[in-house]
Amino acid sequence: GESVGLHLPTLSVQEGDNSIINCAYSNSASDYFIWYKQESGKGPQFIIDIRSNMDKRQGQRVTVLLNKTVKHLSLQIAATQPGDSAVYFCAERVNRDDKIIFGKGTRLHILP
Amino acid sequence: DTGVSQDPRHKITKRGQNVTFRCDPISEHNRLYWYRQTLGQGPEFLTYFQNEAQLEKSRLLSDRFSAERPKGSFSTLEIQRTEQGDSAMYLCASSLGRVSHGVKAFFGQGTRLTVV
What average pLDDT score do residues A70-98 get? Predict the structure, then answer.
């Protein structure tokens, strides 16, 4: 079955504040993780990824943290903007597998 | 625009009819994936191709579903005898090799199927 999940289905954040979206996974054999952003009517869009031999990776305004001990992944978005409104999915690839497994998603609402 | 094209964008069909969707991946991408996404859920893996070879099929892909990639370029997904439970967004993605750090999968905008 699917092993990637999310703690919160909806997150509301004030514009300009930082957003933190969390994700739990259960397969300890997962070796690669991706965060995707999906806007209404569009396909998932790559945001940032991290390999299992890392615990932190930074991009432009985004940071992904990986805690393998508790099988937890988070996405931090700095200075959240209206354009960040979307559904965010964490996804994983099980070691040596060829497909990406998605979690259920968190909807991010930006409050004015 | 990611470069992955899907056609049609929307399809409404009556229960019991057959439907076919098309995906045109980014031209040099050898891997092509099909996913299904229902409202409020994450995409679920259906199947994937490496060139023209179909290498894996999910148990979600019942006998009514068939996918092809005859020349290793575009792919089609056919659903026979559609049921209301088939209503979903069907997403296609492509990548140049196995998805990993440095190899991204690019998704199309999907085909939304409504079975009435």
Answer: 92
